[in-house]
Amino acid sequence: MIETIAQQPMLAALIAMVGLGLLFGALLGYAAEKFKVQGDPIVEQIDALLPQTQCGQCGHPGCRPYAESIGKGGEINKCPPGGQATINAIASLLDVPAPELDAEHGEEADVKTVAYIREDECIGCTKCIQACPVDAILGAAKLMHTVIMSECTGCDLCVEPCPVDCIDMLPLEDGIKQWHWPAPQKVADLIATDRTPQEASL
Amino acid sequence: MQEFAIILVSSILINNYVLVQFLGLCPFMGVSNKLESAIGMSAATTFVLTLTAMASYIVDVMVLMPLGLIYLRTIAFILVIAAVVQFTKMFIEKTSPLLYRVLGVFLPLITTNCAVLGVALQNASKDLNFMQSSLYGFGAGAGFSLVLIFFSAMRERLAAADIPIPFQGAAIAMITAGLMSLAFMGFSGLV
Q1: Bridge partner list, A138
Q2: H or E segment to which residue B98 belongs
Q3: Beta partners for A169?
Q4: For chain A, what is the domain count?
Q5: How far apart are the C-alpha atoms of A100 and A118, rounded to whole Å?
Q6: Which chain B residues contact residue A32 at CB under 8 A?
């Protein structure tokens, strides 16, 4: 068999290369099935509920690591920027009772704030830029820095490193762009049901 | 046993693939900025080199030689390397997500490392047996790791050193690599 194929160089080359290709393809196809990596779907859902301030007040380096720790069964009351609303949302997602916000990690702010740099006093040390978890501060060494308001999450992390204390946390003013309808008053869940609202109202 | 030791010394020091044969220079220059990534890259490359040396030996002896297709070695080995690297990537992604994140983009880049193809082709032209070719593959990987880690450690120091302006950046890296290569030439005639 091998001799007859070997006598036809063209055919032999064709068979060998196609055969090798098929073999490796099959191997990789099998490996792709066997070594499939599945992300944890619950972590994605928790991460979507978190405020994405990346402030690190929960003790994790960002919102996603915090979501992963919740996914492994960690506490859900460590997020001050999200406040009670986020805790309630995660609790209803995981179907567990909603605890109070853990005061150890900070208090929920009443108003949303943004950082504001008093630009006359800024010495251009870039320390706040390094502290900012969402890259909302612009500037270069020995040049004035400024905050991109739409990117700032109000996490306070830049206030502490500033050597000349020129960063203020100002309350975000309710303008026409920020205003939104207040959430409807939620009546407590009357009866737990699997049916959709349309069915339930019948 | 002595034969294996000679193969290892020869492939790590005397015929070092980077500094003596000048193969695989792109990762040598590209990944040597930080010691941490250099270590990750060396581990992955050593693993891939050993595995490809074995796989290409099998392909060479079982498929190419009986069919008289030795002229197809290069293209067949490229196929083997690509498959092995892809397999390694999937395997590491599943078994060690942390290592996978550290290696990141370097893992697929090993496919284009010319040292990998160089080892496979040289092994095939040297008429080695299976054990010898896998040892050559491992030795090539170990030699690559050795010089890559040395070089990145030096570059980390160079980053903080007071270098004259014309030599800053890539220029001093090239000079360092040249001096290292000269030093490794001194190993010739060791065995």
Answers
A1: A146
A2: helix B97-103
A3: A115
A4: 3
A5: 36
A6: 90
